[in-house]
Amino acid sequence: MNPVELRGLSYAYGEGELRRPVLRNVDLTVRTGEIVLLTGPSGSGKTTLLTLIGALRAMQEGSARVLGEELMDATETARVRLRRRIGFIFQNHNLLGFLTARQNVAMALEQDGALGEAARLDRAGRLLGAVGLAGHEDRVPAKLSGGQRQRVSVARALAADPGLILADEPTAALDKASGQEVVQLLRNLAKSRGVAILLVTHDPRILDIADRIVAMEDGRIVQSDTVPG
Ligand SMILES: Nc1ncnc2c1ncn2[C@@H]1O[C@H](COP(=O)(O)OP(=O)(O)OP(=O)(O)O)[C@@H](O)[C@H]1O
């Protein structure tokens, strides 16, 4: 089973005369452990596609199988359940400012009823160690650099042991070195854990981490290149 399989996926915003198609007949497969970068001009539909795959909005047309679940006609309950199996990373990291790095990561484990508070904090500490933040566990986001904050997001996305990570412009707010460090880290973790990554980016500095680069234009996939290497 591939983590992501899209067939004939179309999507439009608005209704009636205001209806505006933004995705047109998209086919896309992401394999286990594969890192796919999604590029394309502003407005080409990348973020919309990512939110559909992430079960953050309801499908309209076509088929999307994500981690084995069909999203077309899926109930809200089924979508919520699927979202818990996906790691999300965003440009502005979405960390809670009043919680420490460790608490931010531990929060992502709260869905797991089997783990008590102490076990969650312990696991969060180990994940922070895995992203190179040992010694920074008890700092709040404001006391970390942009790159370190994005590493906390990576640790948080990995917390629930996801089969798929969806990232939207994760390096946009970072300088070149921190951006490359974060994506390299993401790559190493994905490869060692067999997690698939679909990453939207405008950042030409990180194209070399991809297994495949998919280009979108006007709601269509116009090019899919396997990166040699
Ligand atoms: N909630 C919404 N309601 C109506 N139109 C929307 C909505 N969200 C996005 N759009 C429009 O849909 C189109 C695709 O937007 P989307 O954000 O998916 O593109 P994108 O490729 O991610 O762009 P960017 O690179 O600028 O983030 C754009 O024309 C946008 O204006």
From TrEMBL:
KW Transport (keyword) present: yes
Designated name of the protein: ABC transporter
InterPro entries, per database record: AAA+_ATPase, ABC_heterocyst_DevA, ABC_transporter-like_ATP-bd, ABC_transporter-like_CS, ABC_transpr_LolD-like, MacB-like_ATP-bd, P-loop_NTPase
The entry's keywords: ATP-binding, Nucleotide-binding, Transport
Pfam families for the chain: ABC_tran (PF00005)
Gene3D superfamilies: P-loop containing nucleotide triphosphate hydrolases (3.40.50.300)
Organism encoding this protein: Falsiroseomonas bella
Residue ranges annotated for the ABC transporter domain, each copy included: 4-227
GO molecular function: ATP binding; ATP hydrolysis activity; transmembrane transporter activity
Single GO cellular component term: plasma membrane
